[in-house]
Fold:
Amino acid sequence: MLVKNVKSAVLKKPSFEKVIVVTKLTQLDALLARFNTAAQARFYLEHTGEDFDPIEIAHQQYYRIVDQVRGLIPRGVKSILLERDLLPQYQFEENDLVIVIGPDGLVVNAAKYLSNQPILAVNPEPQSFDGILLPYNIFTIKKGLDNALFGEIKVKNIAMAEAHLADGQQLLAFNDLFVGANSHVSARYEIRMGQQH
Structure:
């Protein structure tokens, strides 16, 4: 009987065709892009009076969480690892499930590029991030992922703000839009909502 239950769970078709895991570059990734090696980055930081070890530890911890989350995706379910900078170029499909591995700003950034795809947001550093938009951690994401793929996913819909610029651009925002010049100058704005000015 137990074997039949295990088989039926494995054979159950997932609700989503693909899982997209959205990640960010760590501080060490940025240093490696600049200095080419960890040793060079360590040398530079230590000579400016900064400690390299916490940066390296945070980097290792983040990618350990990424690997653990990816390991929870069942075999047979397609998955893609997508770095934040590639979000504008990636074409999300209707049947994608998106997992974002924190911080809150990464969830906000990813949401701008989605239409109706659900996001499971994971807090990789609960000791560092408030995680207002990160309901999952490494201990709870498996249940959330299993529910999304094989059960009932509870979705909290969030409205996006939309701005249209005079040059034809359309901007979406999760929680706020900055309206202003790129420099420290005064500006006058006309804000319209429907027929109201």
